[in-house]
Design goal:
With about 375 residues, this protein is of the alpha/beta class. About 35% of the residues lie in helices and about 15% in strands. α8 links the parallel β6 and β7. α1 crosses α11 and α10 runs parallel beside α11. The two termini are about 25 Å apart. The structure holds N-{4-[(3-aminopropyl)amino]butyl}acetamide and zinc ion. N-{4-[(3-aminopropyl)amino]butyl}acetamide (Q9C) binds next to loops.
Length: about 375
């Protein structure tokens, strides 16, 4: 399988994030992508391509240009304001109750994008889990190029390509970043594929978290079917979206399918949900699936509660490919660093119909995670 990778992700050099008001060691770190690259290199069955630069038009096809401008300038504004913090995080978020009783027109007129960057980060951001540093914008742009290059390779005839995107994307909405995500790599790729083929495209999101951004972007779209398996938002981030009764509106009615699962979900229940998700995808025409692939469903993941095993990833990859559609597979989350390489290798080998044999030399320093 071909893999699109660039060391440009290293510029998004994150060591600390904030969680519920306190600094904690960052989860979405550069080591994640490097672990996966190392395992795929060691496998020998993967070849690596550098991304091709695609420019801004593919991004503004799904994102507000104001978000792009904010992210581009945010670090220089942070520096210019001499904010004594190692990364940018918002000072205020515009809770909708701040405007209670004011008309939509009044709010549009009065609640402009703030001038100071602590307010601007709240205007464009969802939460404090997406710290922004000097190299974040260039890395996020490169992740988009990784996704678009993977899509190009598939449109050129490859049956399945893996885009090693970092930072991830599925929490980023049209006009919002958050949840470690800045640009929605999968949505940008799906939009580009619709544009290039005129076909319908399906997105299968198997990250542990609901891809609120992808859902929002395609909510009214009849040509992109979004199907997501994730932790029930009654229990986990992003809390406000991801329920089964969110089915889309207008031309998108029935094109959004959420399959929330209980905390602690294991292989059996997850594979049953996978079969349901694949049925929903199979029921609409189209020849390409964009996969938002997260490994935070793994049993040892530090922020997820599910109990998936490496063997399950091999099987999910196998079943996804068995639909017979071409796959643009893009990395989202997954934070148990020692297992990421083997889990990615298992999934991708499954998608190629190859067996999975654990690499003896790749043993997980922090525990025998191969069996989960
Ligand atoms: N204790 C992705 O997986 N909350 N984003 C973290 C940590 C934010 C996850 C809480 C989770 C965002 C792409
Ligand atoms: Zn996630």
């Amino acid at each position: 399988m071909r893999v699109v990778y660039t060391p440009a992700h290293l510029a998004h050099d994150i060591t600390i994030e904030t969680w519920m008001g306190m600094p904690i060691p960052a989860n979405e770190v550069a080591e994640r992508a490097e672990r996966i690259r190392g395992a795929l290199e060691a496998d020998g069955g993967f070849t690596f391509d550098e991304p091709v630069e695609h420019g801004e038009a593919a991004i503004t096809a799904v994102h507000d240009a104001g978000l792009v401008r904010f992210l581009e300038a945010a670090w220089s504004r942070h520096r210019a304001q001499r904010i004594p913090r190692p990364f940018l995080s918002a000072d205020t978020y515009p809770n909708r109750a701040m405007f209670e009783g004011m008309s939509t027109e009044a709010v549009d007129r009065l609640a402009r994008e703030p001038v100071q960057v602590g307010g601007r980060a709240g205007f464009w951001g969802l939460d404090s889990a997406a710290p922004l540093v000097a190299g974040t914008y260039s890395a996020a742009r490169a992740a988009v190029d990784v996704a678009l290059t993977a899509a190009d390779l598939v449109l050129g005839g490859e049956p399945a390509v893996f885009g090693l995107c970092r930072p991830p994307g599925h929490h980023a909405a049209r006009s919002m970043y958050g949840g470690y995500c800045f640009f929605n790599n999968a949505a940008i790729a799906a939009e580009a594929i619709v544009g290039a083929t005129g076909e319908r495209v399906a997105i299968l999101d198997v990250d542990y978290h609901h891809g609120n951004g992808t859902q929002q972007i395609f909510w009214r779209r009849g040509d992109v079917r979004y199907v997501s398996i994730h932790a029930d938002p009654d229990h986990d981030y992003p809390y406000f979206l991801g329920r089964a009764d969110e089915t889309g509106e207008g031309p998108g009615e029935g094109e959004n399918c959420n399959l929330p699962l209980a905390p602690g979900t294991d292989d059996g229940a997850y594979l049953a949900a996978t079969d349901r998700a694949l049925e929903v995808i199979d029921a609409a025409p189209g020849s390409v699936i964009v996969v938002s692939l997260g490994f935070d469903t793994y049993g040892l993941d530090p922020i997820g509660t599910f109990g998936l095993t490496t063997a399950a990833y091999h099987e999910i990859g196998r079943r996804t490919a068995a639909l017979g559609r071409r796959l643009v597979i893009l990395l989202e989350g997954g934070y148990h660093r020692p297992s990421l390489g083997e889990n990615a290798r298992a999934w991708l080998r499954g998608a190629e119909g190859r067996p999975f044999d654990p690499l003896p030399a790749a043993g997980f320093e922090e525990g025998g995670a191969v069996a989960g």
